[in-house]
């Protein structure tokens, strides 16, 4: 099968022909139907995040279950051949401190972080010379097929489009969940969203679902502001080069600052903007992921004196088995127009170009259609 492989950070990805072993115990083989191209993939490709290699890229995908591994019971697992599944990039270990506290999205001991290695350290992907290739977060969705942990395969409601299921697996769960789960935004609250990529626009949709009273969308691209209005934003701001001026404009638009400011880009400057724009009692929710090692700062006296808060939102506090079908149902009901996030359908050979679009801040979600 063909797959997008990153040999080493900073190098262009290549489409390679790989051999895929049958699923082992606790695994399923999935024929991929769709994979999103996410900014997190770009961080890995460009070396912003340290990851091993060579590795099949992709962590936002959906496909059809083809084969269950030995001993995997269809009734107990809820999986059967022919079923559409969205793939989760975190399979909780069930034993760590976070899992025991019911916060599985924080799990640091997830087998997903072995990137497809089994207990003996081997993978199920091989090049023609027999050398092993990893699968990013053990799902490596930029491939025609993949063997994944059964806990990563989440059944989707009948009628869910595969590309919608794919985006639920990352950007939608991350953005919508940041609003309705991590921050638990109450109805009537004022919300600002800084950055309108796939995650940021998912935050906009989540804020609309939550019943936000005022919803301000902020970006440097006018076309993204227009789409944000169509998805529920009540106000838009075209950001300039000076974050302080943008913060001033946001405070003016919201009568002193938004109750909740969501940063969905992953830059220290915009994280600082989200905090700086808060009124007393306001909350900044940091959703975007920066390159590793970067720091942001804020006026500690003003922050404490105003009783402000900062929340880090990882994966939208998602419990995949519960939340993925819920978001799909909302889409099918017409309340979560996930398909509006997709502006380009590509083949595997178009991934490197899609990474270039992400670097330039162009467009919305590119989706590989298999």
Describe this structure in words.
The structure is a single chain. With 370 residues, the chain is an alpha/beta fold. The chain has 2 domains: 2-170 and 317-369, Medium-chain alcohol dehydrogenases, catalytic domain (Quinone Oxidoreductase, Chain A, domain 1, Alpha-Beta Complex), CATH 3.90.180; 184-312, Rossmann fold, CATH 3.40.50.720. The protein has helices at 39-46, 74-77, 97-100, 162-182, 198-210, 222-230, 243-253, 268-276, 300-305, 320-332, 351-360; strands spanning 2-6, 14-17, 19-20, 27-36, 55-56, 61-68, 84-87, 125-126, 132-135, 145-149, 153-155, 190-194, 214-219, 235-238, 260-263, 283-286, 309-312, 342-346, 365-369. Strands 4, 6, 7, 10, 11, 18 and 19 form a 7-stranded mixed beta sheet that branches. A 6-stranded mixed beta sheet has the order 2-1-5-9-8-3, with no helix packed on it. A hairpin with a 5-residue loop joins strand 8 and strand 9. The radius of gyration is 20 Å and the shape is globular. It starts with a strand and ends with a strand. 51% of the residues are buried.
Give the arrangement of secondary structure elements.
Blueprint lengths: L1 E5 L7 E4 L1 E2 L6 E10 L2 H8 L8 E2 L4 E8 L5 H4 L6 E4 L9 H4 L24 E2 L5 E4 L9 E5 L3 E3 L6 H21 L7 E5 L3 H13 L3 E6 L2 H9 L4 E4 L4 H11 L6 E4 L4 H9 L6 E4 L13 H6 L3 E4 L7 H13 L9 E5 L4 H10 L4 E5 L1
Parallel strand pairs: 5-9, 12-13, 12-15, 13-14, 15-16, 16-17, 18-19
Antiparallel strand pairs: 1-2, 1-5, 3-8, 4-6, 4-10, 4-19, 6-7, 7-11, 8-9
Helix pairs in contact: 4-5, 4-10, 7-8
């Amino acid at each position: 099968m063909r797959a997008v492989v990153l040999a080493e950070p900073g190098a262009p990805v290549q489409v390679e022909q790989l051999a895929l072993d049958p699923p082992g115990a606790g695994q399923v083989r999935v024929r991929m139907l769709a994979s999103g191209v996410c900014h997190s993939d770009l961080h890995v490709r460009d070396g912003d995040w340290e990851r091993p290699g060579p590795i099949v890229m992709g962590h936002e995908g959906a496909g059809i279950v083809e084969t269950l591994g030995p001993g995997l019971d269809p009734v107990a697992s809820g999986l059967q051949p022919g079923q559409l599944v969205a793939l989760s990039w975190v399979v909780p270990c069930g034993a760590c401190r976070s899992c025991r506290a019911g916060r599985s999205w924080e799990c640091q001991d997830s087998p997903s972080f072995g990137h497809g290695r089994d207990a003996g350290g081997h993978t199920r992907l091989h090049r023609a010379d027999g050398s092993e290739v990893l699968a990013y977060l053990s799902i490596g969705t930029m491939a025609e097929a993949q063997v994944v942990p059964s806990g990563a395969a989440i059944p989707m409601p009948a009628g869910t489009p595969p590309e919608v299921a794919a985006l639920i697996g990352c950007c939608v769960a991350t953005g919508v969940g940041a609003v309705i789960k991590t921050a638990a935004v109450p109805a009537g609250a004022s919300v600002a969203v800084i950055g309108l990529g796939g995650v940021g626009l998912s935050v906009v949709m989540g804020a609309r679902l939550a019943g936000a009273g005022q919803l301000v969308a902020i970006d440097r691209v006018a076309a993204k502001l227009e789409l944000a209005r169509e998805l529920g934003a009540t106000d838009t701001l075209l950001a300039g080069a000076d974050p302080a001026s943008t913060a001033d404009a946001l405070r003016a638009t919201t009568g002193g600052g938004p109750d909740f400011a969501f940063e969905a880009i992953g830059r220290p400057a915009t994280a600082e903007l989200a905090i700086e724009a808060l009124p007393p009692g306001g909350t900044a929710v940091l959703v975007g992921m920066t390159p590793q090692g970067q720091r942001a700062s804020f006026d500690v006296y003003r922050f404490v004196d105003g009783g402000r808060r900062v929340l880090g939102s990882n994966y939208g506090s998602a419990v995949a088995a519960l939340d993925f079908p819920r978001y799909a149902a909302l889409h099918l009901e017409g309340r979560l127009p996930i398909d509006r996030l997709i502006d380009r359908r590509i083949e595997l050979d178009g991934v490197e170009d899609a990474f270039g679009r992400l670097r330039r801040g162009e467009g919305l979600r590119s989706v590989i259609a298999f």
